Amino acid sequence: MALPKAKDDALAARLAVLPSLSDTGWLAAARAEARTRLSAMGLPVRRDEYWRYTDPASLVAADAPVAARFDAGDEAPVFAAIDRLKLVFVDGVFDPAQSDDLALAGVEIERLATAGATDIHWAQGLYGVLEARGQTPVHRPLAALATAQATDGVLIRVTGRAARPVSLIYVHDSDTSDAILHHCVRLEKGASLTLLENGPAAARFTKVLEVEVGDGAAFHHVRMQGRDHARRAATHIFARLGSDAEFRSFTLTANGRLTRNEAVIELAGPNSRAHVAGAAVGDGEFHHDDTVFVTHAAHSCESRQVFKKVLMNGAVGVFQGKILVKPGAQKTDGYQISQSLLLDEDSQFLAKPELEIYADDVKCSHGSTSGAIDETALFYLQSRGVPRKTAQGLLVLAFLAEAIEEVADDAIAEDIRGRLEGWLARHSAKAGT
Amino acid sequence: MLEIKNLHVKLAEEDKVILRGVDLTIGAGQVHAIMGPNGSGKSTLSYVLAGRDGYEVTDGSATLDGAELLEMEPEERAAAGLFLAFQYPVEIPGVGNMTFLRTAVNAQRKARGEDEVSAADFLKLVREKARTLKIDAEMLKRPVNVGFSGGEKKRNEILQMAMLEPRMCILDETDSGLDVDAMKLVADGVNALRSAGRSFLVITHYQRLLDHIKPDVVHIMAAGRIIKTGGPELALEVETNGYADILSEVG
């Protein structure tokens, strides 16, 4: 079916400003397929069901809205204390000079552009494949755009236990940068990798990360999206797990004019676990959207979605989360919680939790709440001599605790708590509300 | 130490007057008890002194060592040496009891211009004080008051008091919900803290608690005023005859 003219025009305008890519190998074919998918869907508009709470206009506009760089020099560099292999992208372009050598025991790392030129590559079975699967039943056009138009990315194949975490560092340099990245990670049977991501990336950032977690493999992902106030981002994680596999992903978002983080996870083999969690703190011009779709396609799997948002001075939080339990996925243990702490009456939280279950022997629970800080607890703390602002910080961190506990590494979890304390000390809701 | 003069208080949101001219002076090292029927304003008095929202002081003053409490934030009152043991200690999920205690102790020290206690010294001190109150290590690790029994909550209040070493302690119906053994434990904790430089205001319905925490002065409160003041024998009189005689006697 042809797209309405307005959608067609919007897509044409968006594609017109993007660089034309000259891939030759398998990548050219994968991109062509993605472009076909994209042409059939068009770019998202507010009327689309899963964009009702988040206006995609600035994410799909031909030009990226201007976003000033922000100097986060008031705190220690993210993940600085961790021994890791660093891969640096400046405005979405890999920078070999700032990056480490790509050699790492147990891991093969290649740049998308280089690997894409070959005729045959392992990533053929992954690049754009999970993204394409993830387009049903809900369209994710920005993900197809990233498959079709990514200007850079890395392909990571993990064959054993990765000697060190791989750290993707996204530097925002130009006020008008419009970065599109696409990464693939494949963990072979029994392999394990921790992937770290941090930084604002660009004025506007569109990204896909596809992760294939093989049987008995473990993938841990911790992401800290940069503190730039004006940046916009639409990110997607597509993951598929084999049997006895583990997937854990945690995202900390502090600031950002508009962030849409999608996660599409399929538990394809039995006895696997997928945990996806996020903590977001926003002040004023802040719109943060977590859209999560977890599919239980095999029996005896566990999934957890834990999302917490702290909002003040008109900040907006969105959560759209679904657990789909397919026929035969017995003994499913699914859990979903989305909560917001509204520090004033101007902020809002919009939540759409969904369960769709086609098996009869499952345990699924979901909950969504939004509320103000507990004044009684606040007074109790104050009455013990804790200043109001410190007391608020303690209660906010307590609120976020369940999400932060999803970070497997204790040192990183502690670091995240410290950064949140700092953020809370720098921000406060307007007096009298 | 604590001097309350002509204190008038109403609810902030409605026109309901609760305290109608309370006068009370507590000297250093003294233990005063306030007894009175339900609704007489006892708990309101304790909340107003501690600085809880929702009350409006329409007249009067309350000073601690000459400093006006009513103009201070709750945390400033605490740093000045005031402590309220809550009738219903508040549960705070996600905040560890130990973190809570250390944050409170260090915040008060900081407010007074003193150095923070080292983690090791703090731990040693908490363990020692907890032991005398029969508070085990598990309780210190758990979130503040979450899943604590009534008795554990009250013992936790006394532990906070012991750690913070306030000069003026208010105990708001600390005996409520306690069995005899638990009450004895709490009372022993309080008695251990009695000293020449520390005063107590014990709010209670029953004379029972005063068998364990012996007051120097007993006040009877009714309809927002202190209507009678006497020695420990006043509490016994209430125990025997109830409040009716005193209320009718005062009119």
Structure description:
The complex is a heterodimer of chains A (433) and B (251). With 433 residues, chain A is of the alpha/beta class. Chain A has helices at 5-16, 26-41, 57-60, 112-115, 129-133, 141-149, 375-383, 388-404, 410-426, and strands spanning 85-90, 93-94, 107-111, 154-158, 166-171, 178-187, 192-198, 204-213, 218-225, 232-241, 246-254, 258-267, 273-283, 287-296, 302-312, 316-325, 333-342, 348-357, 363-371. In chain A, strand 1 and strand 2 form a beta hairpin. In chain A, helix 2 packs antiparallel against helix 6 and helix 8 packs antiparallel against helix 9 (410-426). Chain A starts with a helix and ends in a 7-residue tail after the last helix. Chain B is of the alpha/beta class. Chain B starts with a strand and ends with a helix. Chain B contains 10 helices and 12 strands. In chain B, helix 2 crosses helix 3 and helix 6 (150-164) packs parallel to helix 7. In chain B, helix 7 (180-193) links the parallel strand 9 and strand 10 (199-204). Chain B has a 6-stranded mixed beta sheet, sandwiched between helices. The model of chain B has no long low-confidence stretch (mean pLDDT 92). The interface between A and B is medium-sized, with 23 and 31 residues.
Topology (SSEs and partners):
The complex is a heterodimer of chains A (433) and B (251).
Chain A: H1 5-16, H2 26-41, H3 57-60, E1 85-90, E2 93-94, E3 107-111, H4 112-115, H5 129-133, H6 141-149, E4 154-158, E5 166-171, E6 178-187, E7 192-198, E8 204-213, E9 218-225, E10 232-241, E11 246-254, E12 258-267, E13 273-283, E14 287-296, E15 302-312, E16 316-325, E17 333-342, E18 348-357, E19 363-371, H7 375-383, H8 388-404, H9 410-426
Parallel strand pairs in A: 1-5, 4-6, 5-7, 6-8, 7-9, 8-10, 9-11, 10-12, 11-13, 12-14, 13-15, 14-16, 15-17, 16-18, 17-19
Antiparallel strand pairs in A: 1-2, 3-4
Helix pairs in contact in A: 2-6, 7-8, 8-9
Chain B: E1 2-11, E2 17-26, E3 31-35, H1 42-50, E4 55-64, E5 67-68, H2 74-80, E6 82-85, E7 92-96, H3 97-111, H4 119-132, H5 137-141, E8 143-144, H6 150-164, E9 168-172, H7 180-193, E10 199-204, H8 208-212, E11 217-222, E12 225-230, H9 232-241, H10 244-250
Parallel strand pairs in B: 3-10, 3-11, 6-9, 9-10
Antiparallel strand pairs in B: 1-2, 1-4, 4-5, 7-8, 11-12
Helix pairs in contact in B: 2-3, 6-7
